[in-house]
Amino acid sequence: MNSQATKKIKTNTSVNIWLRILKTMFLGRLTEERLVRLYHQGKIFGGVYTGIGQEAIGAVSAHIGTPDDLYAPAIRNVTVHLGRGTKVLDVFRQYLGRVTGPTRGRDGNVHYGEMDKGVFAMVSHMGAMLSVLVGGVMARRRLGKSTMGFAYIGDGASSTGDFHEALNFASVFDVPILFMIENNHYAYSTPKEFQYRCQSLVEKACGYGMEGLEVDGNDVIKLYDQIKIILEKIRKNNRPVLLVCDTMRMRGHGEHDDASYVPKELLLKYKEKDPIHLLKKHLLNNDFACEQDLKKLEKECLDEINQSYKKALSEPMPSPDDLLEGVYAED
Ligand SMILES: Cc1ncc(C[n+]2csc(CCOP(=O)(O)OP(=O)(O)O)c2C)c(N)n1
Ligand SMILES: [Mg+2]
To answer: 0.90 exceeded by the pTM?
Structure first.
């Protein structure tokens, strides 16, 4: 018998949530790896923009919110959708343009959301979702809910006017939002040195009179502990907070981009800090799980992906007759 199987598995109050986060990261990673293959086989009509290497930020924050909270994911946040309960099946339906999917085949990649799970569909303009989220959180709170918001943006998006307006407005009007910058060092091919001249993006928080913090965005344990503390403060004080998460985009901007402009050493450094690898190591080294458990979990995720892909493929595309339905406001 393998020595791992005989090890006594320990537990603490956080192990269950870490395992749920790991499952979301497995699902996100394996789904996106499949989408990458499908894209290069010419089976996806639109673009494929992945969050491979950045899964932890979305997965941790999705699992930590309450059902009343609102989320505004960006292009790399499949783990926000999956963590809030979207089925892998719906992700494949979306990318394969199926009429059964979240946008009924109107869109073929990231512009989908699930309002019943508190997740906005994104618009592509960098930073534009931030004010939508601020408004959404304010509206829900006026209806008597204790909603707070989770916003995700890139280092590049932090240079936009929309970023400035939304953070300033949220601070002035005490809107409880966790603004997370996923600093993956590149905005398309623009390296961070050409994006900002402050030492760290966290310095921007001070200009809005809000608290700003930095965290390793690939380390689930640190992220979870830090976000938990921040959320308690946000809910208590009704104040927004800026959290800068260091991470790395492990593929090109999209699958049409080979990212040849990114130094190999930088990618190697972050490969060692892969969020899934780090969490698995933590669980195994502390005997919170054994190899077999983790392999089983990963296999279950892969099975779900295989079945979902097959099912989505068997479903119809939208009919040209009603393709404009829902595109323009109806009478
Ligand atoms: C206002 C605006 N300008 C340009 C673009 C084109 N564009 C899409 S993503 C992107 C780079 C985004 O970089 P970053 O914010 O760092 O996010 P990342 O892709 O690294 O996650 C650009 C320039 C856009 N969508 N919106
Ligand atoms: Mg970036």
So the answer is: yes
